[in-house]
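re the bet — no i am not wrong, look at it urself. input seq straight from the record:
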Amino acid sequence: MLSKYSLGMPNTVFGGENSLGNISDILNTEGVKKLAIFTDKGLQKLGLLDIPLKEVKKTGVDYVILDDLPPEPTYGQAQKLVDQCKEAKADFIIAVGGGSVMDTAKLASIAMTNDYGIKELLDNPKRARKYIKTLLIPTTAGTGSEATPNAIVAVPEKELKVGIVNNAMISDYVILDAVMIKNLPRKIAAATGIDAMAHCIECFTSNKANPFSNTFALEGLDLILNNIIQACDDPEAMEAKLAMQIGSFYGGVAITASGTTAVHALSYPLGGKYHIAHGVSNAILLVPVMKFNEPEIQSLLAQAYDRCIKGNASTEEAKSKAVINCLDEIVKHLDIPKSLKEFGVPESDLDSLVASGMEVTRLLVNNRRKVTPEDARKIYLEIM
């Protein structure tokens, strides 16, 4: 556990029923003249943007909608929206969407300048500073992006997804309103929910874990483990959905104080090269990596058992295995693929997968059990 640690959080977080009603107060308080709303076309078709847009319209603020963003965007595609935001001369940003939308909005908040673009931040993220405030409204539960200083973009020339990290990207406002995820398709709710679950268990077992991150990681894991199935299976389970939103947010907060590990590190090539959804690639890798890590994290998994499962297991070994089995059963129940077969990933690509995964040193250094190239090869082979 780290002996020195810090915690960065959004300035103001609104949650609970009708929390979207705070939008007009935020815009009025900030004296917004021109608003940029980041979202995507899929969300607009689902009518999800209409809910917060109704609140925006009450203020009479001039706004522009920026929605030309595909899932898992490249840095070039994200830069396109950033440029549109600059051209609009926006003085405030609202993001309504999942991780890619919120990440792009966060990048825009630090890239409203001609001094650098997203490509330059890939090489040196520390040079950035915040130019424009943000309100993030997640529509999944989720990526936790609304709480983190991270933005993930695909880098096609490396066939990899890369994280840009700068505390200036921590949002100014967040709204967690369960109405935004009420009608989320089960497939998306499941994948993003597993992503949030991975954030919590990875941050709790990370080399950088500390009292700050553990507080949020364990509470987030408790909320997610005990609500994810009901939240995904029952469209009317609003209490479970709100619990998932809060758990996802806590996972994001844990990331700011700690960091994810080999699950996320080895999943990045799967998104970067094969465009497998981030939550799905994490779900495929979660149990194999936890089994690999178990010799080094058994006592931590036992603590997680005592907090989140509270069953009849009496030994540390039994508790640890029970947590891993619980993760496995959740992935199975939510019908998420457990192998790369249906994504057409050939075994002949194994060498390139290993090479790309081992490049993600930012996260691999957090893993309590050292991951060698041979270890990565065995893990990838297990999911082929």
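see?? Strands lie at 12-15, 34-38, 62-66, 92-97, 134-138, 150-155, 160-165, 173-176. told u. also The chain has two domains: 12-181, 186-382. so pay up
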